[in-house]
Amino acid sequence: RVPHVVSCLLSLQECILSGIMSVNGKKVLHMDRNSYYGGESASITPLEDLYKRFNLPGTPPESMGRGRDWNVDLIPKFLMANGQLVKMLLYTEVTRYLDFKVIEGSFVYKGGKIYKVPSTEAEALASSLMGLFEKRRFRKFLVYVANFDENDPKTFEGVDPKKTTMRDVYKKFDLGQDVIDFTGHALALYRTDDYLDQPCQETINRIKLYSESLARYGKSPYLYPLYGLGELPQGFARLSAIYGGTYMLNKPIEEIVIENGKVVGVKSEGEVARCKQLICDPSYVSDRVTKVGQVIRVICILSHPIKNTNDANSCQIIIPQNQVNRKSDIYVCMISSAHNVAAQGKYIAIASTTVETADPEKEIKPALDLLEPIEQKFVSISDLFAPTDLGTESQIFISRTYDATTHFETTCDDIKDIYKRMMGSEFDFEEMKRKKNDIYGEEEQQ
Question: Which PANTHER family does the record cross-reference, listed alphabetically (predicted)?
Fold first, then answer.
């Protein structure tokens, strides 16, 4: 048996890392106890399986169409058009296995209603979210952010990106609380208000990422793959296979074999697959992770687009925590038959938030109120885990559980963090491209 450098027990982070490791010339073995790729990030099809998974009695009504027309994500997320995951897809060329559609709009909740998020000057001037003078100030702020370049102090206008807090930057432009809410939560995509008292550089870069992503396609900065997110882990799995990775689905994991405090293999069905490093999700190593919170997600099947979204067939809605007296935001993302994930004329809206009380269903109610009438609900509450073992000694690298956000940026931060712990160096796209050329030569790139 050839020892494998890396064994992966799969969720999306593991699939992406194994693809990247394979491209970088490492020998990868994938094992998964499920019969499908991607663990928690899978898409469930047919619809009957979703009913079973949530222990709902009976079968879906005929009005829901054919079961096999459905691909329902358990954990819905959109991709930022200019974000890290799209860069990973382009770098690894996984894009050749996937087709994406742009999400039609991004909305924000204010005083019980939803409004389109203004992110260009023209939209800011037309938006009913703000009064006239507020619009001018917000427009000046957007122009400032667009021109801001962390390498050119001439663009700072008296702001020190590493010292000035974001709260002070908002003050400088005299922006009111509602504008601060949607800028921080719907543009910079923070989940809480902790960022206000941190240096502003990160926030300005996040708003720039949003605007640049938006500029690519115009309707919103988000993309979503046809046939659901389950396509992503499959794409990376195909990539790894091209570069010689080995796959084993339906493999129960009996034991992670440790010698002298270090991982040496994974035992399945009596046999040990040897490895030098192991990447896995928290469900495989309960003794090396700690619970850091909970997320509630409600999958809703609708027969209508969401009200006040111009009948969009896909959208994201962010409910900033201040608007509903909470500490964390509530997210809604909606997709439909236009993405080959639902039967004709049907919509899937998924609401999620970080649990803060003993009554999570009440916490998510503001989101569900926006979706009425709801044909069928599937409610799940999941524990969030983070690794207590960083893998330096054990060489076991554990991913974090998916959070409540509806985009992949936090997941990509986790991937880069694991990469750094495994390889001892930063995750650098340019450096990787050079390495890939060294290993496989230019010809294979074409």
Answer: RAB GDP DISSOCIATION INHIBITOR BETA, RAB GDP-DISSOCIATION INHIBITOR
The Cα 361–Cα 342 span in angstroms is 25
Record the tokens describing residue 63, joined without a space: 């009005």
Handedness of CA 71, 411, 161, 109 (dihedral sign): positive
Sheet holding 376-387, edge to edge: 113-116, 106-110, 315-319, 330-336, 347-354, 289-302, 376-387
Q: Using CA atoms, how far apart are residues 32 and 251, in angstroms rounded to an integer?
A: 6
* Residues sharing a CB contact under 8 Å with residue 28, sequence separation 6 or more, in sequence order: 4, 5, 6, 7, 8, 18, 21, 22, 240, 244, 245, 246
- Domains, the chain, with CATH or none: 5-41+229-290+386-440 (3.50.50.60), 43-104+291-385 (3.30.519.10), 118-216 (1.10.405.10)
Do strands 4-9 and 271-280 pair parallel, antiparallel, or not at all (unpaired)?
Answer: parallel
- Name the residue among 215, 166, 216, 161 with its Cα closest to residue 190: 166
Which candidate, 396, 391, 415, places its Cα nearest to that of 255?
396
**Residues 146/151/154/155 CA torsion (nearest 10 deg):** 20
Read off the DSSP letter of residue 34: S
- pLDDT 10s digits, 88-142: 888 888 888 889 999 999 999 998 999 998 767 777 778 888 888 888 899 899 8
Q: Give me the DSSP letters along 200-237.
A: THHHHHHHHHHHHHHHHHSS-SEEEETT-TTHHHHHHH
CA-based R_g, the chain, Å: 22
Lowest mean pLDDT among 104-108, 172-176, 440-444: 440-444
Q: Which amino acid is at 109?
A: Y
The conformation of residue 120, written as its DSSP 8-state character, comes to S
**Share of residues in the chain with pLDDT > 90 (%):** 55
